[in-house]
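Example (one chain per record):
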Amino acid sequence: MGLTGGLGICISHSFGANDIEKLRKEIAMSVYICLAIGIVITVGSLFWMRRLFVFLQTPEDMMTDTLVYFGTILAGSTVTIFNNFAMTLLRSVGNSKVPLASMIVSSVVNIVLDLLFVFPFGMGVFGAALATVLAQVVSALYCLVYIRRAAELLPRKTDWRADGVLLGALVGKGLPVAVMNSVTAVGGMVLRFLSIRWERLMSRLMLHV
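Predicted structure:
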């Protein structure tokens, strides 16, 4: 997620400057930001998800499965965001091995759970989506184990007090990256929408030939 990458920029600056007090405060405020975004995405998806897929002209016979799959994924968006932040946090302090290992572990877990949920348990599309969310949980927990071993990365009780100035600075760093990634994602959806319209137009033309 683009925003967590931006948060990592601030964290890496504080870590490089050996400003542990500011580092812990930034981590605490970043957790608040991630939690807020996760809630907004989860709640917001209840209102815009179906409208989006209608706009993208998703076939009616696929609409139910599409809503089930993406609804499950978005319901677990908070977990995904925290997983991304945990990996970003470790990379920001120079630990790139653990995030890589967590990605490998989560991929293996995802594949195993996909096969387990879809075939023996017959959970279909919901099972595939649930496997993805649970794999993110495993990845986040894997990273958390290593984060807890680093005392400088653990905010103290006083660090959890809301700091509007620091929150604004963190969002200011993360927002441009998030917008850039969003533009890429939206561009992909627009291209998909146009390709569907083009395919349907060509099909109609062929019927009249």
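Caption: The two ends are 47 Å apart (CA to CA).
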